[in-house]
Amino acid sequence: MAAGCCNHYETTPVVEPGWRRVLWVAFGVNAGFFLIEIAAGLAAGSVALQADALDFLGDAANFAISLGVVGLALAWRSRAAMAKGLTMIALALWILGNAAWHAYFGTVPKAELMGIIGIAALCANGAVALMLWRYRNGEANRRSAWLCARNDAIGNLGVLAAAAGVFGTGIGWPDVIVACVMGTLGLQGGWQIVRQARAELRAASHDGVAMAAE
Fold first, then answer.
1. Which domains does the chain have, with CATH numbers?
2. Contact 69, 178 (CB under 8 A)
3. Can you give the three-state secondary structure of 85-132, one letter per residue?
4. Which residue among 24, 114, 176, 192 is least crowded, i.e. fewest CB within 10 A of its CB?
5. Could you tell me if 170 and 108 are in contact, meaning their C-beta atoms sit under 8 angstroms apart?
6. Which residue has the higher pLDDT, 209 or 147?
7. CB of 141 closer than 8 Å to CB of 75
8. What's the pLDDT tens digit per position in 87-134?
9. 27: burial class by Cβ within 10 Å (0-12, 13-18, 19+)?
10. Reported confidence tier of residue 56, pLDDT bands at 50, 70, 90
11. Are 143 and 193 in contact (CB under 8 A)?
12. How far is 29 from 166, CA to CA, in rounded Å?
């Protein structure tokens, strides 16, 4: 699902008012929906909703970090992207562990509540992904923001599929399966960001050595 890493590195800090505004909107949407989905996930007993809520929390933190490094040098932006990639990996591992717990105990979530919250979250994430579309091929920090929004929109579709599966079968396995897919996607996206950030840090270090030698 994840696209290949960009091989072009932006070494000059660029402050775009549009980029900063998009980050603020994305941060507000993700922070708000984390609170909504974590409450709904617990009420519905849905591991897929809880996974999506945790994804919202991680993304809110990621967008806050992006806001903090706007206009800084490439090395600092790449370090922030590295932190975000590692956070994505940690959250994905938690999601997979939680899915295994629900599978073991055979919980059956409330499909109707899952569907309602899933539709609302899809609309929110779809809007954020559209705003970030123009930044998807930038350096790792910007690319990670786009990947977070894209993965969230895909995750919301998964929640809706899980809700339909639970409603149709009366068992909790569709919820668990979707949570596992979301966790795997998070691992993939996090590793991709870590790889690109490491490459950018190496490039920034090489440039610094070359400038010092001149």
1. 17-213 (1.20.1510.10)
2. no
3. HHHHHHHHHHHHHHHHHHHHHCCCCCHHHHHHHHHHHHHHHHHHHHHH
4. 24
5. yes
6. 147
7. no
8. 889 888 988 998 999 898 888 999 999 999 999 999 998 999 888 888
9. buried
10. confident
11. yes
12. 27
Distances 150 to 124, 199, 207 between C-alpha atoms, Å: 11, 23, 32
**In the chain, which residue ranges form alpha helices assigned H by DSSP?**
17-44, 47-68, 74-105, 111-132, 140-169, 173-213
What's the CA gap between 85 and 10, in Å, rounded? Answer: 19
Structure tokens at 212: 């010092």
Q: Which two tokens stand for residue 136?
A: 């998807």
Judged by DSSP in three states, 46 sits in: coil
Three-state DSSP at 49 gives: helix
Closest CA to 95 of 162, 167, 46: 46
Nearest of 204, 186, 154 to residue 84 by alpha carbon: 186
CB 83 within 8 A of CB 61: no
